[in-house]
Specification:
Layout (H helix, E strand, L loop, with lengths): L1 H5 L1 H31 L4 H8 L8 H24 L1 H21 L3 H29 L4 H31 L4 H4 L1 H15 L14 H24 L4 H23 L13 H17 L2 H12 L4 H7 L1 H21 L1 H19 L8 H28 L7 H36 L4 H29 L3 H11 L5
Helix pairs in contact: 2-6, 2-7, 2-9, 4-5, 4-6, 4-10, 4-18, 5-6, 5-9, 6-7, 7-14, 10-11, 10-18, 12-17, 12-18, 12-19, 13-19, 15-16, 15-17, 16-17, 16-19, 18-19
């Protein structure tokens, strides 16, 4: 230590190494974020290439999302227990191998399995990578700067994914949206072995609670499968009810495991904190209503309006910029009108955007039909995510900060997956009914999407009701007070 202090060259070397570590973990995080959006614009090409059914297509998204959300908390726990570099490397390896499987997939089942494996890799990479950043940079200006870079990578990765997905799909094939991960993953893995140390938490958990992660993920997967198959089996059929019973049994088993575990994945007592539980339930509804928008709008643009994949990718770029604008606005408005009012404005804007989508026709222009919805909805979501994140992480003890953050991220993923399952089932049912009555393919698809957008808007309204009925004024006082500027 003294030698390092007395040797300016050594200090500069350590400083350079810290920022190089940030570059390495950001490369991996970029890959994970990229994959979350790059698939959306390739969905129609994948559907035709591997002969997915309309109801089965959603599993390309949900296979990834459910496993990612279900194992996210396990990834954070395991990185503390086994070492951050070790989990980061394992996650990158799994994600890269899964990408290769997806690129070579010859059937819908093979692709869905590969996407689920990708979700597991992402669940190990993301919490380990963020933990590496926060332990590499001590609190203060450097950590703030590092987390700023981290957040920029998240926003940039989403935007690049939309355009890159379209470019690769059009110029090569949809398989290259997965092959692109191979060089990124190999570079990140090689550099992590050389430059990232395998640090562990000072107070390590007794177990990683694999049983908890497996039961909750299994329960959610079976629940989504039951919802998807309900259209074919019948909502009250023996098979649908049986699948529902299995899902409930697995989720109940998860609760029992958490109550009895010495080191539970989720300490259920934290849910007694009203601000945390209310914001997570609200986020569950928001995720259910809004995240499937990309799915339906992308298929609408390509299957109904006959956009190419690249053009469809550019069509969604305003969403990224709108979220940034909404996030900046929310930070300025919270201190003036209060955190709940800001999130209310954001959710109402989201509802307005989704309802405007229900006015789309088979001949709607981009700037007359799609762009206004994206603009209003994206700004509204930026004004929703920031307040809900603050609500979910404020009033929480320092020792539970990681758990609170993980729960909120899990609510986003699980809400998005459940929402897509419900909305896709309703949209497919409506489309099928119209086709049987002689309505044209494009018109039936569009009117089916109208149902999805309308129900998605209703889910946002439900989130708003949760925020106003479950959240008490005293739960908001600490946040609103901390955001009020101190008079000069």
């Amino acid at each position: 230590m003294d030698a390092a202090i007395g040797n300016p060259a050594s200090v500069r070397q350590n400083e350079a190494n810290r920022w190089f570590v940030l570059v390495i973990v950001c490369i991996a995080q970029f890959m994970v974020i990229l994959d979350a959006t790059i698939v959306n614009v390739a969905l129609p090409s994948i559907q035709h290439g591997l002969h997915f059914t309309p109801s089965g297509l959603q599993w390309i998204v949900n296979g990834y999302t459910l496993v990612f959300g279900g194992f996210l908390l396990l990834g954070g726990r395991a990185s503390d227990l086994l070492g951050r570099q070790r989990l980061f490397l394992a996650g990158v390896f799994i994600f890269t191998v899964a990408s290769l499987i997806n690129g070579l997939a010859q059937s819908s089942g093979m692709l869905i399995g590969g996407r689920a494996l990708q979700g597991l890799g992402a669940a190990l990479v993301s919490p380990a990578a963020l933990s590496i950043v926060t332990t590499t940079f001590s609190e203060g200006a450097d950590r703030t700067k590092a987390l700023g870079v981290w957040s920029a990578i998240a926003a940039g990765g989403g935007a690049v994914g939309l355009v890159l997905g379209g470019l690769l799909t059009e110029s090569l094939s949809w398989r290259w949206i997965f092959f692109i991960n191979l060089p990124i993953g190999l570079i990140a893995a090689a550099l992590s072995v050389r430059y990232i140390s395998n640090s562990r938490a000072q107070e390590r958990p007794e177990t990683a609670d694999v049983a908890g992660a497996v039961t909750v993920t299994g329960g959610l997967l079976v629940l989504v499968y039951a919802i998807v198959k309900a259209q074919a089996y019948g909502w009250l059929s023996g098979r649908t009810l049986g699948l529902g019973a299995v899902a409930v049994a697995l989720l109940v088993a998860f609760v029992v495991i958490e109550l009895r575990s010495k080191a539970p994945l989720i300490r259920l007592g934290i849910l007694k904190l009203r601000s945390l539980s209310s914001s997570n339930i609200a986020m569950l509804f928001v995720g259910a209503g809004i995240f499937s928008m990309f799915y339906f709008a992308s298929i609408y643009l390509q299957e109904v309006r006959h956009y190419g994949a690249l053009r469809a990718g550019f069509a969604f770029l305003p969403f990224t910029f709108g979220i940034v604008i909404g996030a900046v606005l929310s930070q300025q408005l919270i201190s003036r009108i209060g955190i709940r009012n800001v999130s209310t404005i954001g959710m109402i804007a989201g509802v307005a955007g989704l309802l405007y989508f229900t006015q789309l026709t088979t001949h709607s222009s981009y700037f007359g039909g799609v762009f206004p919805s994206i603009a209003v909805m994206s700004i509204g979501m930026g004004m929703t995510f920031v307040p809900l994140t603050l609500l979910a992480t404020t009033n929480v003890d320092a020792g539970d900060a990681g758990l609170a953050s993980g729960l909120f991220n899990t609510s986003q993923q699980v809400g998005g997956a459940l929402g897509l399952a419900v909305l896709s089932t309703l949209a497919t049912s409506r489309t099928t009914h119209l086709l049987h009555n002689g309505v044209s393919q494009s018109s039936a698809l569009t009117r089916g999407y109208h149902v999805a957008f309308a129900v998605g808007a209703a889910m946002l309204v439900a989130g708003l009701v949760v925020l106003w009925t479950l959240m008490r004024r005293k739960d908001l006082e600490q946040i609103d007070a901390s955001e009020v500027p101190v008079p000069a």
